[in-house]
Design a protein that fits this description.
The chain contains 7 helices and 12 strands. By secondary structure, the protein is of the alpha+beta class. It folds into 2 domains: 2-88, no CATH class; 94-226, tt1808, chain A, CATH 3.90.1570.10. The longest helix is centred in the middle third of the chain and has 14 residues, at 94-107.
Length: 228
């Protein structure tokens, strides 16, 4: 009961925690993905068997999460690893998908390599999957990129996470330019000057403006055209 009561401390987590079902947890255990990890499943969350103070939810490292993914038990699950926690990814509505498609076309001529919803290893226990990522080099077959030229998140309902945890992660990488495309507001928030405390500068571009080019090879972004 002590563990379970401590677990309720995390009920108001700012991150939308993903809850595993018993079948998925069993497949992870059988595959050896959680070998050496002293946890049990309570209310869909991985709980430390021997918690200290308030650390009852187990924080996964990137290696353990990689084994979980490789096991196939998480196939098709809308999950990201943020701050060591399994976090639920928002589903794609038509507005969200249309903006990603337009931005992919826009960034295609950039000097670099564009990936869509693929991971970047930003810090211990964090493997976010930005909607778009522009990297200088092609992806390695051995590890995920650890920095990028540009990260883009398209927000319809995920504003709190994108402005909070994800902004801190991209700044720590450091990713020099981070765009948050706010679909309901029809604006693009451009964060620059990353540092240990996050991005020092944020400029907001509205419907009648153009966002300065984020990389060589692409023009300034017409915000009105993006949301047309």
């Amino acid at each position: 009961m002590a563990i379970q009561s401590r677990h309720h401390i995390y009920a108001d987590s700012p991150l939308p925690l993903y809850r595993l079902d018993v079948g998925t947890y069993s497949r992870l255990v059988d595959a050896g993905a959680l070998e050496g990890v002293e946890v049990e499943l309570l209310d869909g969350l991985l709980i430390n068997k021997w918690p200290h103070r308030d650390d009852c939810i187990h924080r996964l490292d990137v290696g353990t999460f990689g084994r979980m993914v490789a096991s196939g038990a998480l196939e098709g699950r809308p999950i990201e690893l943020l701050e060591g926690l399994l976090v639920e990814v928002s589903p794609h509505g038509p507005e969200h998908a249309a903006v990603i498609e337009r931005l992919t076309t826009y960034l295609a001529p950039a000097q670099g390599h564009v990936s869509v919803q693929l991971p970047i290893e930003t810090q211990w226990g964090s493997l976010p999957e930005p909607d778009l990522l522009l990297t200088e080099d092609r992806r390695s077959r051995k590890r995920h990129p650890r920095t990028a030229l540009l990260a883009v998140e398209v927000a319809v309902t995920s504003h709190d996470t994108d402005r909070g945890s994800k902004a801190s992660m991209y700044a720590s990488a450091p990713v020099p330019v981070y765009w948050l495309v706010d679909v309901p507001a029809k604006t693009v928030e451009v964060r620059t000057e990353p540092g240990p405390g996050g991005y020092a500068r944020c400029e907001i571009y509205g419907i009648a403006t153009k966002v300065p080019s984020p990389a060589e090879g692409v023009a300034d972004l017409d915000v009105a055209a993006l949301f047309a």
